[in-house]
Amino acid sequence: MREPLFVKQNAGKWKRFEEDALRSPDELADNFIQITDDLAYAKTFYPKSKTTAYLNGLAARLHQSIYKNKSVKSNRFVLFWKYELPELFKIYEKQLLYSFLLLIVFCLIGILSAKYDNQFLQVILGPQYVNMTNENIAKGDPFGVYKQQNEFIMFFEIAGNNLYVSFLFFLSGIFCSVFTVFLIFKNAIMLGSFEYYFFSKGLGWKSILVIWIHGTLEISAFVVAGAAGLILGSSILFPKTYTRLQSVKRGAKDGLKIVIGLVPIITTAAFFESFVTRHTEMPAWLSLTILGTSLAFMIWYVIIYPNRLYKNNTRYGTEY
Question: Entry's InterPro entries (predicted)?
């Protein structure tokens, strides 16, 4: 069926659903089922059209009308991580991709810069860190830096710092994402040069087994936080059908939710860095198990699970 005919046949019904807000719960539920059927049809045959966007918004409003009086205090915490946050990952999958690609490109710049400029490591990592690590390598304990501080103090310092950096990634987006991109650049350059340093010392594989126990979650969280900053910035630059103020409010709200959703991930990464990474001689299989599980979780939760929810048309109430 052509889109104009589809709209003509259903426009009256949609308008009635939009205007009749004070219906019984049963009628609202029936209306919601009809709208989701129409939305599924529109997504199949007109996926990029304004009709699909309109039906998506109408379905979200009906969903909210049904559940607005439902008590969710007891399970609101669970619903946020089960539905709401994954929905945001799907909605803003482009920003997540851009943040990841920026990280990769800037990491490569860091690697090449460290390779062809002997002074680059000293500038980026600092002479004190480089000298200390050289001494640790000479002692046969290249990752001794992770053993110097008390575990609990280290945990709170690292968790606090990484949470601060993640919120900084997001808040920097208010400057049209320029400073968010700069922060991605700064951290990625450090990451690239940091890894090159250990590979140049013949410790590349060992650095992966040790550092990426916590680094997998930590760097993944920074990619997501970078995406939150890009969301805020793009809401200012590209308001689309919203007014600029509405767009900024929406971008700020969604970006903040994403950064808040990172708290357990960042906390877990800090726990690994403080209590687990210091055991540098643990078996390779154990390191790879932790690393692989962390990576698999991030891929599943940020990419696979949100797409599965979208495919099954399962929504908490956020507009796709």
Answer: SpoIIM-like (IPR002798)
Of 37, 70, 103, the position where a domain reaches its end is 70
Name the 3-class secondary structure at 21.
coil
Q: What is the C-alpha radius of gyration for the chain, rounded to an integer number of angstroms?
A: 24
Residue type, 78: V
Q: Could you read off the pLDDT of 188-216 as tens digits, one per residue?
A: 999 999 999 999 999 999 999 999 999 99
Of residues 237, 219, 223, the one with CA closest to residue 174 = 237
Domain that holds residue 161: 84-311
Give per-residue burial for 121-140: e unless 16+ CB within 10 Å, then b. beebbeeeeeeebeebbeee
Same-domain pairing of 160 and 221 = yes
303 pLDDT band, cuts 50/70/90, is very high
Q: Over the chain, what is the mean pLDDT? A: 88
Q: Both 160 and 224 in a single domain?
A: yes
Q: What is the mean pLDDT of residues 156-176?
A: 96
